[in-house]
Amino acid sequence: MDRITISLVEFINKAKKVVNPKDTVGLVWLYILGSVTWLIILGTAAMNLRTYLTYDANSPSVGPIYYTMLTIHGWSAMLGLVPDAALGIIIFSMYKSGLSVVHRRLITAMFWISNLALAFALFGGPDTAWYMYPPLAIEDNAVFQAFRLYHGAMMGAAYLALALNSACASIAALVLVIDAYLTKPKDKKINIFAAYGVAFSLVIAITLPALTAAELWYTAAIWFPSLVKVNPLLWVILFWFYGHPVVYYVPFPLFGALYYYIPIYAKRPLFSEKWARWNIFLLAIGSMLIWVHHLQTFPLPVDLRAWITVSTLLLASGSGLTVLNLGLTILTSKGYDYKDPLGLTFLIALIGFIIGGVQALPQPINLINGVVHNTYYIVGHFHLIIWTLILVGFTGVFLDLLKVSNPNLNFSQKARKLMVAGLIVWTVPFVTIGYLMSIAGYLGLLRRVIAYPPMFTPYMDGMSFLAEIGIPGLVITIATGIAEYIKTATPSTTQVSTFPPSSFTLSLNGKDMVKEVK
């Protein structure tokens, strides 16, 4: 009984440290665990909606359930996972460069308010997809209901909760930029990981308030319908000023991670750090200027359509420069260590970004976009990025977080093989799903519809079957890393060292040299 009591007390004490972190690494854990929670929720919703897509005996009554699951999937991803993962990675990048979070309590409060507010909105059974387009998103009648459970004033409260969700995330992002400035040594340049993290924390702080404004507008329109009206076009402009950059909230900080980790496992310096740092300006500014390409099906002027194509391809050139820089780093090395789980995660993330990004290149071209805009081709493209660059790259950051939190951790040979196998088991099926989606979209399969021609049934069945095979892969990798972490944990490892144990960068004669710490 005493043993059980002691274990319970230890568990409670550790839980308190997670709920209310005491240092920068503790904040990383808080945001990473928040991300994993939303990943589980959105994944569960995805498998549910795929069940409805593949069940032969569906009735019309299944439609509302399907669209609610689709919205839960989208909101959990874009309003939960994305900001939590982005901020977690950004805080970790700051730590890896010797920066720290000064306003720890404020960042912690923003996390809890943001996530609990989103949970409140989701409990209302939203039915609008993550876009929340008017007027259906504020409808509350027998024909269409924006929420299955929240009606009248409660529907306005749900949008107010969403406004709190986005406002708190944007405040947290801005505070991280301030803290990075406050803790940066005057005579030292921050590493490339933190440079990308802080830059795109600023992008989050600038663009996310547009979503907050749109959500507050909905709240006012629902609570004061005689005084406030929603203009659909202005609302769409506000939404997409946020809605395009949000797709980069996680990938661009992960670009910094790729620039940081790939040279370590290539055992040579980054091919051109100058390219990498100048590229920040192109990616950060460009990501906020090309949102109008999401409105290609609107009756846009010809000159604006020309801007869409040119500006999108300019942003793509920044991504291409990243691929070139990292590719040359790997190709000019004496051998990349892909047998190390961390090395493999970032290699998969890079390759996944390439194969998913190539599919995006035709999309800004006006004649092509009109054909693929509302099809599974688009779904295939962005899910390839999500399943490889975002989720596998996120996994790599998580594995290094385990090492940082436990300096005694050194993955055993058996664990390394198991984690590498898990990464392959995840990647191969999900890359195949991405291409199945794209092919089906090219053939005419529309997205966001539950009723589709029978010719697409084999594609849908294949997607669901492969997902069932692939999901255990990532679970194996993460669970093995956690098991190794627990196995090697000792009381002496409860204090986190000032400098990360995995690697650091020295500047010798003006040239960055990557050193590994054994």
Verbal overview:
This protein is 69% helix and 2% strand. The protein is mostly helical. The protein folds into 2 domains: 14-272, Up-down Bundle (Cytochrome C Oxidase, Chain A); 337-487, Four Helix Bundle (Hemerythrin (Met), subunit A). A two-stranded antiparallel sheet has the order 1-2. Helix 4 (104-122) packs antiparallel against helix 5 (153-183), helix 6 runs antiparallel to helix 7 (232-243) and helix 9 packs antiparallel against helix 10 (302-331). GO terms for molecular function: cytochrome-c oxidase activity; heme binding; oxidoreductase activity. The chain crosses the membrane at residues 24-45, 65-94, 106-125, 157-178, 190-213, 233-263, 275-294, 306-330, 342-361, 381-402, 423-445, 465-486. Its EC number is 1.9.3.-. Keywords: Electron transport, Heme, Iron, Membrane, Metal-binding, Oxidoreductase, Respiratory chain, Transmembrane, Transmembrane helix, Transport.
